[in-house]
Design brief:
By secondary structure, the protein is of the alpha/beta class. The protein has a domain of 166 residues. It contains 9 helices and 10 strands. Strands 6-7-8-3-9-10 form a 6-stranded mixed β-sheet, with helices on both faces. Strands 2-1-4-5 form a 4-stranded antiparallel β-sheet, with helices on one face. Helix 4 packs across helix 5, helix 4 packs parallel to helix 6 and helix 5 packs across helix 6. The longest helix has 19 residues. The chain binds adenosine-5'-triphosphate and magnesium ion (MG). The site of magnesium ion has 4 residues, from helix 2.
C-alpha cells in the first residue's frame, strides 16, 4: 500500500495570521468573523497533523465544526500556506494551486465566476487547458447533464439557488481532468434526491477514472456510503487526526446492510470520542 502513496502530510501546523483583516482574506469570507479563532496566542488551528493518502483512495474527513477541515483542504489545494511541517504530492512540497487538483469549495459563492454563465463557468478550466471546442462542448454538456443543470446553462450565478451554484462547482470539478478531487462538503446544500444521484455518480466516476478523492462531510451515512478511509479530527484548537477507520466494504453499499450500519455506528462513537477527548489532550486512547 505504501508504494502507492500520493499525498504525504507530516507534522503539519497552521495558525492564521489575524494581525490584519486583509491576511487570509480569501478564506475569511468563508467564516463568520465572530467565530474566528482568537485570543489563544499559543494555539494553532491544526497542530501536528500527519497522514498519508494513497493514489486512487476515496478519503473522507470528519470532525466538529471549526476544527480545521476546510483549512487542511485549502492547504492541500495550495490556497493557504502552512505555518510548519510538510505537505507533499508525489514527493513535491505544495506551494501553490495546480491543475492536478480540482477543488469544490464549501462556499460556492467564492468559487464560481459571477460574470460567466453556468455553461461558461464549467467550460472555463477546459479553455485554459486548451481543450478543443468540440471536445469541450461534449465534456461540458455531459457534466451539466450529470448534475441536472442542462436547462440552466445560460443563466448567470445570480439567477441560481445555493444548491444550483454548488452543482456548477461539482460539474466543473467533474469536467476537469485533475487527478485529485478536493471536495469540501460538496453535497451539503443539496436536496436528498440530487445528493443521492451525485453520490452514486461520484462513485462511478471515481471507479472509472481512478481519481484520488478528498471529501469533507458532516454526514456519517455519507461518509460510510462513499469512503474507503475515514480520518477523524480531534476538536479545536490544535486539531490533529485522532483516528482513522478503514471501510472495507464493497460498493454499492446499502444503508440497510448490517455491516454498513455497524460501521456507521463505530464511526459515530469514534467521532464522539475524538471530540470529547480533547480536554484530556485529544489523543487517541483506543489505538
Ligand atoms: N481566514 C481565517 N482567518 C482566521 N481564522 C480562520 C480563518 N478561516 C478559518 N479560521 C478559523 O480556523 C478554525 C478552523 O476553520 P475551518 O473553516 O477550517 O473549520 P471546519 O472544520 O472546516 O469547520 P466547518 O465544519 O464549520 O466547515 C476556526 O476556528 C475558524 O474560525
Ligand atoms: Mg469547513
Amino acid at each position: 500500500m505504501s508504494e502507492d502513496k500520493l499525498i504525504e502530510i507530516k507534522n503539519l501546523r497552521l495558525k492564521y495570521d489575524t494581525s490584519s483583516p486583509k491576511k487570509n482574506l480569501f478564506f475569511s469570507k468563508n467564516v463568520n468573523p465572530d467565530a474566528i479563532f482568537k485570543g489563544q496566542e499559543d494555539s494553532y488551528v491544526l497542530d501536528d497533523v500527519s497522514l498519508d493518502i494513497n493514489k486512487g483512495e476515496f478519503h473522507i474527513f470528519l470532525g466538529a465544526s471549526g476544527c480545521g477541515k476546510s483549512t487542511l483542504l485549502n492547504i492541500i489545494a495550495g490556497f493557504l500556506q502552512k505555518t510548519d511541517g510538510s505537505v507533499k504530492i508525489e514527493g513535491n512540497e505544495i506551494t501553490k494551486p495546480g491543475r492536478d487538483r480540482g477543488v469544490v469549495f464549501q462556499n460556492a459563492e467564492l468559487a464560481i465566476y459571477p460574470w460567466l454563465t453556468v455553461y461558461k463557468n464549467v467550460e472555463f478550466g477546459l479553455k485554459l487547458q486548451k481543450v478543443k471546442k468540440e471536445e469541450r462542448k461534449k465534456i461540458v454538456d455531459d457534466a451539466l447533464e450529470l448534475v441536472g443543470l442542462s436547462e440552466h446553462r445560460n443563466k448567470y450565478p445570480s439567477e441560481l439557488s445555493g444548491g444550483m451554484k454548488q452543482r456548477v462547482q461539482i460539474a466543473r470539478s467533474i469536467a476537469s481532468d485533475s487527478e485529485i478531487l478536493i471536495m469540501d462538503e460538496p453535497f451539503g446544500a443539496l436536496d436528498a434526491q440530487t445528493r443521492k444521484t451525485l453520490q452514486d455518480e461520484l462513485i462511478r466516476i471515481w471507479q472509472q477514472t481512478g481519481k484520488t478523492i478528498l471529501f469533507v462531510t458532516h454526514d456519517l451515512q455519507e461518509a460510510v456510503y462513499l469512503g474507503q478511509k475515514i480520518s477523524i479530527f480531534s476538536a479545536a484548537p490544535n486539531a490533529h487526526i485522532a483516528k482513522q477507520i478503514e471501510v472495507d466494504l464493497p460498493y454499492p453499499r446499502r444503508a440497510g446492510d448490517g455491516k454498513v450500519a455497524m460501521l456507521t455506528n463505530d464511526v459515530h462513537m469514534e467521532l464522539n470520542k475524538a471530540i470529547n477527548a480533547h480536554g484530556e489532550g485529544g489523543v487517541d486512547k483506543s489505538a
